[in-house]
Write a structure and sequence with these properties.
Number of strands: 21
Strand content: 15-25%
Structural class: alpha/beta
Largest sheet: 7 strands, mixed
Bound molecules: nicotinamide-adenine-dinucleotide
Number of helices: 15
CATH class of the largest domain: Alpha Beta
CATH superfamily of the largest domain: FAD/NAD(P)-binding domain
């Protein structure tokens, strides 16, 4: 029986990073198994293609808006197949080499399903059984469909079909869920010319974000013709002759040609014999883990989305490093104190730390500074004034608890707040630091200044 020191199941962001980092340490026999495509959800069906699609959507929107800037274009037409082709080219350029980069560094790659069947035993789809001293499960998540009667009777898109399936934009699209996936596709398809309705069960869009952020995002989407129904209760779904009809409690039905479910994701461990290895999940299906991502099964770690928390590639990369350090006998705990989140709508939504509401729920006495992007000179110059920056700090200690930015470049801007929180930098230091004129980041300097004035 072939033996490996570390067997990594899943070749997405987390699994690939574990394999690469382990190989840097030489001498270890490392294997990586992937059943679908090396690159995983982010690379093939998530972050990378959706950002490519959104770039095309932004160009379409800019072209439609061009006259305002003294530029005349012809009518804007959409070639969805060309947009998808470009997204594929980006993926190819980033990860088109398949297993070769892994093999070059000595990682053994199995392009098939691998199942953990007993302690230290992996069975591959072709029947081969191999031995592993340590196993890393980096197996990701799958979408969770809500329990709506009738949903199983017709074609429901997930992010995968919404990117790759259609030849042309549908005339109408209903989206369940106004989280990151729901909002990004809502704007993408609206800009493709589709009539989009977003149905969110909670009382606001982007419900995980600060309330002030949700309000701006809703306005931005509605300005582009997206209909947002919040507090939506979808009682039943009916697929009939090429269209979905969604029955809502207390509101008129929604009829749409296509339906996208963007209602969250859950870790997937199917195929593995969790009982045989002693791997326990919590009531929400997430593995119970230590600070270094060891599961309850002996010498089995998890990393990335499979943890069920903070489903971000940047978190997966951090977790991969935590697992590798533990495997190499120099443990350091996972540190999720400062994790930025970005939703790539236009304007972008970026945040780190606590929302004002979350901080209040902790019973803290707060200082809050909020500035409108409409007051930022660069935003005025660019004609992109929608948005805000908001900082939340503890009044007693001055500690920065959270930052929220909705702006054209929010994903880049948030890192000033990330750096301040990671370094424990007092607001006064950032308020006094010279920020370049004219940039959107001057709004953050202003917000740090407003906090510093109150703290003085
Ligand atoms: P999500 O958890 O962010 O949002 C799901 C939303 O669906 C929630 O707001 C929830 O209230 C709503 N919902 C649930 N059931 C519903 C129902 N029956 N009717 C109406 N609304 C309902 O999940 P997602 O958007 O599917 O994204 C999945 C994961 O992928 C998330 O963890 C997200 O962070 C990650 N992701 C991140 C990015 C990014 O960082 N830019 C992009 C895409 C996805």
């Amino acid at each position: 029986m072939e033996r490996f020191d570390v067997f990594v199941v899943g070749g997405g962001a987390a699994g690939s990073e574990v394999a690469f980092r382990l190989s840097e340490h030489g001498g270890l026999r490392v294997a990586l198994a992937e059943r679908e495509g090396l690159g995983g959800e982010c690379n093939l069906w998530g972050c990378v293609p959706t950002k490519a699609l959104l770039r095309s959507a932004a160009i379409a929107a800019a072209a439609r808006d061009a006259e305002r800037f003294g530029v005349r274009t012809g009518p804007v037409t959409i070639d969805l197949r060309a947009i998808q082709r470009r997204a594929r080219e980006v993926i190819e350029a980033q990860s088109g080499e398949g297993a070769a980069p892994f093999e070059r560094i000595g990682v053994r790659v199995f392009l098939q399903e691998a199942r953990l069947v007993a302690p230290g035993r992996i069975e591959l789809a072709d029947g081969t059984v191999v031995a592993a001293d340590a196993v890393v499960l980096a197996t990701g998540t799958r979408p969770v469909l809500p329990p709506i009667p009738g949903l199983a009777d017709g074609p429901v898109w997930t992010n995968r079909e919404a990117i790759w399936e259609p030849d042309a934009p549908p005339t109408s699209l209903a989206i369940l869920g106004a989280g990151a996936i729901g909002l990004e596709f809502a704007q993408f398809y609206a800009r493709m010319g589709t009539r989009v309705t977003v149905l969110e069960a909670l009382p606001r869009v982007a419900p995980a974000e600060d309330e002030a952020v949700s309000a701006v995002v809703r306005e931005a989407l509605e300005a582009e013709g997206v209909r947002a129904v919040v507090g939506a209760r979808v009682a039943a779904a009916r697929w009939n002759e090429g269209a979905w009809r969604l029955e809502l409690d207390g509101a008129p039905p929604v009829v749409a040609e296509r339906l996208l479910a963007a209602t969250g994701r859950r870790p997937t461990f199917e195929g593995h014999d969790l009982a045989a290895v002693g791997l326990e999940l919590d009531e929400r299906g997430r593995p119970i883990v230590t600070e270094t991502l060891r599961t309850t099964a002996e010498r089995v770690w998890v990393a990335g989305d499979a943890t069920g928390e903070l489903l971000f590639t940047h978190v997966a990369n951090h977790e991969a490093q935590v697992v590798v350090d533990d495997l190499l006998g120099r443990p350091r705990p996972r540190d999720l104190r400062v994790v930025p989140r970005v939703t790539f709508t236009d304007p972008e939504i970026a945040s780190v730390g606590l929302t004002e509401q979350q901080a209040r729920e902790q019973g803290r006495d707060l200082l809050v500074a909020e500035l409108a992007m409409a007051d930022n000179e660069r935003a005025q110059i660019d004609g992109r004034t929608r948005g805000l920056v908001k900082l939340v700090a503890d009044r007693a200690t001055g500690e920065l608890l959270g930052g929220h930015v909705v702006a054209a470049e929010a994903g880049a801007m948030i890192h000033e707040v990330v750096a301040a929180m990671a370094g424990g930098t007092p607001p006064r230091v950032l308020a006094d630091a010279i920020h370049a004129y004219p940039t959107l980041s001057e709004s953050l300097k202003g917000a740090f200044g407003a906090l510093a004035a109150e703290l003085a």
